[in-house]
What we know:
By secondary structure, the protein is α+β, with helices and mostly antiparallel strands. Helix content is 33%, strand content 29%.
Amino acid sequence: MKKTRQIRTVGTSLRGAWHKAKNMPCQDCYRAKNKDDKMVAVVSDGAGSARYSSIGARIICETMCDLLVNSDIARIEEDVIRAITVARDKLILHRLNKSKSASGLVDFSATMVGVFYQQGRGVFFHIGDGAGIAFKGGDYSDFVISEPENGAFSCETYFYTMNDWQDCLRFTSFRDKDRLMLMTDGVTGFVFSDDFYRIRQNFLLPIVEYLEKEERSTYAEKVLRNTLEDKKAQRLNADDKTIFWAKIS
């Protein structure tokens, strides 16, 4: 009989200083679901220029988690494509999409980075910026990363609401990792070096070490929020911020 692994998750999304100053809502979102020894988690960053991007971010997170928690690692890539299609269809029919066509999806533009885990194997699925990382215990030198992808300009990225979204969809597989993290673009600069070859341990280490010990989810989430709401963090990056952490044991 296979041992069912325990999966513990903590995550938070919060408004950045720029959105607070403009009295705008948080356009980031995250969701996670566990079922037996499976877990799916998704974070999304709504485009600041898109009118309903917070809705686009929420719809992709909810849809991916609801559908993929019933998937299997053997067919996860085709199920991811199917789930994104379902999310897009929801937005085409959304009451705020006046055109009721794919042309109206630009108003809901959002990135997506997610992970599916089952029995020691995992897959990141990714469109646009943000990042995912998988590592083993406290070994920060050996990790698998799903990197951000930007366009011709540093401020340009890709969204699941684009017509050519399948050309931008990337999958990254990993094995034998038991710590998983997802984050939006408002956090990646704190976690990785500019070339994404190294982890900035002075930021990540204190967070992870606290989460390893703190089993009360409300306390752990509060610490995450306090870290991201720190004045220095807000000065360095005024964007919305989302971070998600999972431990498999």
